[in-house]
Amino acid sequence: MPKLANTLADKFAKKDPADKATFKANAKKYIASLDDLNTLINKLKSKVNGQLVDVSEPVFGYALDYLGYKVNDDHFSKSTEDGTDYSAKDIHGIETDIKEKKIAFFVNNIQASSKTVNQLVKLAEQNNVPVLKVTETLPKGKNYRTWMTSQYQQLEKIQDQATNSAK
């Protein structure tokens, strides 16, 4: 986001040079507002060691990759994204991952659900596999910072639960 904020400030400054200082100051202020979020992300990243996760859809994929998680069900999540049928093999694979606790958690995009995904979420809950609930679009009443922070705070709780149960 800092790169985007600075790029936008530069573009706006070219269109309106008289307000260049304002655009730069606003970008700097916005970037500073993300400090707590970036601190949280780095804290979460420090606790990841290549754990596997399954996802309903790849909407949170870049975040998972950055943190160091490995998505274990690319084909299934691609089917959700493309709106195509799931293969029995993919469904069975996720069910096995959940029942045998091969994954750290299941990521569910709550804005793009299906009967199959809902059944997998229920199975995860029944087997005490955490479910990280994410959205692909900004929820009403939130801004980017509060939206992302709430999703990463959920992940922090999942990590903390895993740490506490391992003791």
TrEMBL record:
It is found in: Cell envelope. Keywords: Metal-binding, Signal, Transport. Coiled coil: none annotated. GO terms for cellular component: cell envelope. GO terms for molecular function: metal ion binding. InterPro entries: Bact_metal-bind_prot9 (IPR050492), ZnuA-like (IPR006127). GO terms for biological process: metal ion transport. PANTHER family: HIGH-AFFINITY ZINC UPTAKE SYSTEM PROTEIN ZNUA-RELATED, METAL-BINDING PROTEIN HI_0362-RELATED. This is ABC transporter periplasmic protein. It comes from Liquorilactobacillus oeni DSM 19972. The lineage of its organism: Bacteria, Bacillati, Bacillota, Bacilli, Lactobacillales.
